[in-house]
Amino acid sequence: MSFLNNSSLMSVIAFILLVLIAVAMVFVAIRLRKIERRLKGESSKNRVARRVAARKAKKDGMEITDLDLRHTENCKLLPNREMLLNMMPKDAVVAEVGSAFGDFSNEILQRCAPKQLHLVDSWASERYQIGLKTIKKNLADEISADRLHIHQGLSTEVLPTFEGGFFDWVYIDTNHSYETTLEELLICDSKVSETGRIAGHDFCTGNVIDAVPYGVVEAVTKFCKDRNWQFEYLTVESHGHFSFCLRRLG
Questions:
Q1: 222-233: buried (b, 16+ CB within 10 Å) or exposed (e) per residue?
Q2: pLDDT 10s digits, 52-82
Q3: DSSP letter string over 2-66?
Q4: What ranges make up the beta strands (E) of the chain?
Q5: Phi, psi of 206 (to 5 degrees)
Q6: How many CB atoms lie within 10 A of CB 69?
Q7: Cβ neighbours of 129 (radius 10 Å)
Q8: Helices 216-227 and 178-191, packing angle to 10 deg
Q9: Are strands 167-172 and 192-200 parallel, antiparallel or unpaired?
Q10: Rounded to two decimals, what is the model's pTM?
């Protein structure tokens, strides 16, 4: 039997040590990766939890109003908001508050033949500035005929500039927040005629795709109770983004 000399023995020991170190490094790397994934998961959960808490706080900050039968007993359900337009007064002075790209503006023009249609929108972002250009291009004939009027600015700043009782009806479709919607409704209370209507879009709890809570339901019900308005129409589209139409009680 032959024995390893000292030099060979040291080489073997060094090799074994290198193998053990490599195995240890792999084990540590695996552990660190697991810890990193766990921390990322916890961080992601924390972010989700914070967002949920923020949305809940937003909803909790909205006043809940209980309506009476008189606010709803005369309400009729309609299949969609296009049918709602068919029911609205014709040859009227109208405001669409929140017009975006003008798709619904065109529906109002085609279905209601308004005497005047006033579009109120900030068109602030680059995306919606394209919408304003689209409206000016596609509805140029209506603008030239002095039937379509464009008012660029915040709804809560533009609407107060109109005289009292100026509109026969308005349709609100802006940012859907509780505060803004309630302020718009309160302003419109004095800007529509005594027999006028206030209508609007997104009478629902929020955008379920983007997880954005709305305050339209809370604002509209509070407005009806505080200012003596009632529901005249409510649409029931399958996508869940309903429209409402209000008129004064009595």
A1: bbbeeeebbbbb
A2: 788 888 888 889 999 999 999 999 999 999 9
A3: ----HHHHHHHHHHHHHHHHHHHHHHHHHHHHHHHHHHHHHHHHHHHHHHHHHHHHHHHTSPP-P
A4: 76-78, 93-97, 116-121, 148-152, 167-172, 192-200, 206-207, 212-213, 229-235, 244-248
A5: 160, -175
A6: 8
A7: 13
A8: 40
A9: parallel
A10: 0.81
